[in-house]
């Protein structure tokens, strides 16, 4: 889960796994993570802490295609709970982004943001990265403003296009409230987006001559979309188009440093 502070272009208050460690005997793995976050001025003040070793992933990249295989071990690493989340001062945040996991706790977190918005008149945006376990996580869509749904999961459900995927997702939302915006990145085919009024947009991808490293392309897409929407106040189609550009540029190099070369204007 990530939380984006108000008036700040980039800022993640929670790591993907939900917890970080800060102890006198901190592992080298966590020290590297925290040093990297600090270097990029990414706050961790609202993160719960643990003395458990961090999750470990080995990534195997295919040089000819740039595709990757990930071997992941988290040793039952603790996930963020609703109790952790309830300690946050929401007034300092403008956007909270979730992954579709730990469904009971995540749903309570989303509902607490909705209640906070109603109580205070603030408009904290809620978004969801939906990549796994459709049946278990489908109920997480309804409280969201934006849902980004993976092509791979859509394929498992028999959905053939981004438009079909967006429309199928929208049809599952209970009546009585606003629909989320559904966004389906579709790899080299670009991405589709269905707004809350049923208007559909499809944005082409940006082709690259050489694919170097696809690891983190989806996260780069999400970061680009949040930035273009929250900070630059771009329209849905413009924000998704920029997200396509960010993800496409990311795969031309290792890591993420080169993404800073991009700007909102082409």
Automatic annotation (TrEMBL):
TM region(s), chain numbering: none
Keyword line: Kinase, Transferase
InterPro entries: Carboh/pur_kinase_PfkB_CS, Ketohexokinase-related, KHK, PfkB_dom, Ribokinase-like
Biological process annotations from GO: fructose metabolic process
Segments forming domain Carbohydrate kinase PfkB: 33-255
Any one GO molecular-function label of the UniProt entry: ketohexokinase activity
Pfam family, one: PfkB
Protein name per Swiss-Prot or TrEMBL: Ketohexokinase isoform X2
Species of the source: Drosophila mauritiana (Fruit fly)
């Amino acid at each position: 889960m990530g939380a984006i502070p108000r008036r700040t272009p980039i800022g993640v208050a929670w790591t993907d796994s939900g917890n970080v460690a800060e102890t006198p005997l901190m592992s080298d793995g966590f020290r590297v993570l925290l040093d990297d976050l600090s270097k990029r001025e990414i706050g961790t003040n609202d993160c719960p802490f643990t003395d458990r070793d961090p999750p470990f992933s080995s990534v195997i990249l295919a040089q000819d295609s740039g595709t990757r295989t990930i071997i992941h071990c988290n040793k039952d690493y603790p996930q963020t709970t609703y109790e952790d989340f309830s300690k946050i001062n929401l007034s300092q945040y403008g956007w909270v982004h979730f992954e579709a996991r730990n469904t009971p706790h995540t749903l309570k977190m989303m509902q607490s943001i909705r209640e906070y918005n109603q109580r205070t008149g603030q408009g904290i945006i809620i978004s969801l990265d939906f990549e796994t376990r459709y049946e278990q996580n489908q109920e997480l869509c309804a409280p969201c403003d934006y849902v980004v749904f993976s092509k791979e999961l859509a394929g498992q459900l028999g959905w053939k296009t981004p438009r079909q995927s967006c429309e199928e997702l929208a049809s599952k939302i209970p009546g009585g409230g606003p629909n989320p915006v559904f966004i389906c990145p579709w790899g080299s085919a670009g991405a589709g987006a269905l707004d809350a009024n049923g208007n559909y947009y499809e944005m082409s991808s940006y082709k690259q001559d050489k694919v170097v490293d696809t690891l983190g392309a989806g996260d780069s897409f999400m970061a680009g979309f949040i930035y273009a929407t929250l900070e630059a106040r771009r329209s849905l189609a413009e924000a998704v188009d920029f997200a396509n550009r960010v993800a496409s540029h990311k795969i031309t190099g290792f890591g993420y440093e080169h993404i800073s070369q991009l700007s909102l204007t082409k």
